[in-house]
Amino acid sequence: MRKDFTTILDNNGGHLKEVTLFLQRNFIGQDDELGRKLFLNYFRTLVESIERPQSVLFVHSAVFCLLEDSPLYDLFSLLANDGVRLLACKTCCDNYQISEKVAIGQIVTMSEIQKEMFSRTVISL
């Protein structure tokens, strides 16, 4: 059962707590210019907000967001510096042969991803 968004908000300042963002790709909606623009805008807005997720999970092609040449690298670096855990799927990184290129965050197993998902509210983009 989906929680009401207001139950996610902390009463002391509006910071998100116990929330994980689940990313499967680097766009929202369709893989076109608008979809990539929406994705970038979402994370720009998140960086400017006082609200933060506890973690962001990266699976499938979303793992490319953690490479230094990603257009989102700076935004995710800012989130990581604010204490947001960035967790990349090991199977995905191995599949794309980018494990050595992941520049921020942590490469984790699927069991660690499941543990993270089962421990808090998950928002899938």
Percentage of residues assigned to helices: 25-40%
Query: In total, how many domains does the architecture comprise?
Result: 1
Characterize the biggest β-sheet.
5 strands, parallel
Residue runs with pLDDT of under 50 for 5 or more positions: 1-14
Number of helical segments?
4
Q: What pattern of helices and strands is seen along the backbone?
A: EHEHEHEHE
Q: Determine the CATH superfamily.
A: DsrEFH-like
In the CATH hierarchy, the architecture is 3-Layer(aba) Sandwich
Tally of extended strands?
A: 5
| Rg | 14 Å
Q: What is the CATH level 1 assignment?
A: Alpha Beta
Strand proportion, as a percent range, falls in 15-25%
Question: Which strand order do you get reading across the main beta sheet?
Answer: 4-3-2-1-5
Structural class: alpha/beta
- Arithmetic mean of pLDDT: 88
> End-to-end distance, in Å?
18 Å
CATH topology: Hypothetical Protein Ychn, Chain: A
User: What shape does the CA trace take?
Assistant: globular
Describe the structure.
The protein starts with 18 loop residues before the first strand and ends with a strand. The chain has helices spanning 33-48, 73-81, 90-95, 110-118; strands spanning 19-23, 55-58, 85-89, 106-108, 121-124. The protein has one domain (5-124): Hypothetical Protein Ychn, Chain: A (3-Layer(aba) Sandwich). It contains four helices and five strands, in the order βαβαβαβαβ. It is 32% helix and 17% strand. Strands 4-3-2-1-5 form a five-stranded parallel β-sheet. Residues 1-14 have low confidence and may be disordered. It has 125 residues and is α/β, with parallel strands linked by helices.
